[in-house]
Design brief:
Blueprint (H helix, E strand, L loop, with lengths): L2 H9 L8 H9 L4 E4 L8 H9 L4 E4 L3 H13 L5 E4 L5 H9 L6 E4 L1 H4 L2 H8 L5 E4 L3 H5 L11 H4 L8 E5 L4 H10 L6 E4 L7 E8 L2 H14 L4 E4 L3 H13 L4 E4 L5 H12 L5 E4 L14 E4 L6 H8 L9 E8 L2 H10 L5 H12 L6 H4 L5 H13 L2 H27 L4 H8 L31 H17 L1
Parallel strand pairs: 1-6, 1-7, 2-4, 2-5, 3-4, 5-6, 8-13, 9-11, 9-12, 10-11, 12-13
Length: 479
């Protein structure tokens, strides 16, 4: 089988990027594969090329609607017509049509929640697949236990007799996360390909401030004087709105992005950023996965992320074109307490577990707790899953362990901030890898001058910004 010829025929490339050939060869040989490839290294080609080698459909389990839609759009732009996304965007008629002709598609995208719907599950059992893909597979571990437990059920749905190979894809994953991926996908002795998580073209900078207000003032001054495109990450929806307004007042093309916004508004903002109409996005961690913008030059963490995995995922959205980019990690006293609160606010407490069991004992449906506002949607999903797996006392212990684990993850980020050792070496070691060679420009702890990598900001013409300003004003009024 000439893989290079297939690569040239369908994708127009003459050579594979590092790791792609090894991954595809293992899949062709019928092996399960866990592939850790940094953002921008061509993960999607690892399942798209096999889709053209085999005559049977490829099933891709994708965590986000925006990510799924982006991948579908990219395939269609390349001329692929046999692609479908089973998601909430489909009308009932479109869904029935897609399910009826499911066997005729080459690429089938589906969310974990949709995968578990009886109608979809039953139809997929009738379709002979060539490959099953878990995209952004780290979400199985990082989201499944305490955010979207349906991830933990994926393996239950997948056919175990004569099933095709499973490919788990991610940009970053620790050894424990990889073990979770293999376990919950019920993988069979998978081939592992682990590319270094180190991105040499992203320069790591940390900055300490006495007060939180000083961080905001620094961001405004910095963004006003340096060029993007860039993403500013915060932990608060309200802060994304406030900071984006500060930037708009200074004639900077910026917008807030968070899960509380209307779906159409989020799609509009994302598209404006991708096409260069917006220079800066101020976002919670709801933004980024599946956003394929090659020329992001700056990432600013207004406050510390809750885990080093999140940190690496988020800074990895810069410099996908291989050019220089800078990642700023800002910190003020007390940030770690807020990060711990954000990381655990949706974890059910003992009182919630007791109430859940009381409602069941009374003969009511537990979802009444949602209607009464006694549980958040996330807390309900977590309890609804784990109380089917374990006893109430075991679930209480599990929730406590999750809380301690999240606190420990925040403390590792704090160590990155406070420790004087090489920042790059610390994050690489976190993923069980080693940094074999120090680069000249590395991080704040090694000594770095980022001025050569930051271009001065050029004023945009007002006429260029009229359209997006009008549309953003509509979004601001609505929110």
């Amino acid at each position: 089988m000439n893989l290079e010829a297939t690569l040239q025929q369908f994708f127009g490339y003459e050579t594979f990027r590092p790791g792609q050939r090894e991954i595809i060869e293992a899949l062709v040989n019928g092996q399960d594969v866990v592939a850790i490839l940094p953002t921008g290294m061509g993960k999607s080609l690892c399942y798209q090329l096999p889709g053209y080698l085999f005559s049977k459909p490829v099933l891709i389990i994708s965590p986000l609607l925006s990510l799924m839609q982006d991948q579908v759009d990219q395939l269609k732009q390349r001329g692929e017509k046999r692609v479908v996304a089973l998601n909430s965007f489909l009308s009932p008629e479109q869904k029935r049509y897609a399910l009826h002709f499911l066997h005729e598609y080459r690429f089938i995208f589906v969310s974990p929640e949709m995968l578990l719907q009886p109608q979809v599950k039953a139809r997929l059992e009738q379709v002979e697949l060539s490959l099953i893909v878990a995209d952004e597979a780290h979400c199985i571990s990082q989201w499944g236990f305490d955010f979207r437990p349906d991830y933990l059920r994926i393996g239950e749905v997948l056919p175990q007799i004569n099933r095709p190979p499973i490919l788990a894809l991610s940009a970053t994953a620790t050894d424990s996360v990889i073990e979770d991926i293999q376990h919950y996908l019920m993988m069979h002795d998978p081939f592992r390909y682990m590319h270094s998580v180190n991105r040499e073209n992203i320069y790591l900078v940390k900055k300490a401030f006495s007060h939180k207000e000083e961080k905001i003032n620094w961001i405004i001054e910095h963004v006003t004087s340096t060029s993007g495109p860039g993403i500013i990450y915060t932990q608060s929806r309200a802060k994304t709105e406030a900071l984006s307004l500060h930037l708009l007042e200074r004639n900077i093309a910026a917008a807030a992005y968070h899960a509380g916004k209307d779906t159409q508004d989020r799609q509009f903002i994302q598209q404006q950023f991708l096409t260069g109409k917006l220079e800066w996005i101020v976002a919670t961690n709801a933004f980024g996965m599946g956003v394929h913008k090659d020329n992001v030059r700056q990432i600013i963490h207004e406050t510390m992320p809750s885990t080093l995995s999140n940190y690496m995922q988020e800074i990895g959205r810069a410099g996908r074109d291989g050019q220089d980019a800078v990642a700023f990690l800002l910190h003020a006293e007390g940030d770690e307490q807020y990060a711990k609160f954000i990381g655990t606010e949706d974890l059910p407490k003992e009182i919630h577990i007791d109430r859940f069991m009381q409602v069941i004992a009374s003969g009511e449906q537990p979802n009444v707790l949602l209607a009464r506002g006694e549980l958040t949607e996330v807390s309900f999903r977590v309890l609804n899953y784990w109380l089917q797996q374990e006893s109430p006392e075991q679930v209480k212990k599990r929730m406590q362990e999750m809380q301690f684990k999240k606190y420990a993850e925040v403390n590792l980020v704090l160590k990155l901030i406070e420790n004087t050792d090489c920042m790059r070496e610390q994050v690489v070691n976190y993923f069980g890898q080693k940094l074999f060679q120090k680069q000249q420009n590395c991080c704040s702890n090694c000594g770095i001058n980022v001025a050569p990598f930051l271009k001065p900001r050029e004023e945009r013409q007002e006429t260029q910004m009229t359209t997006w300003q009008q549309r953003l004003q509509q979004i601001l009024v609505r929110n």
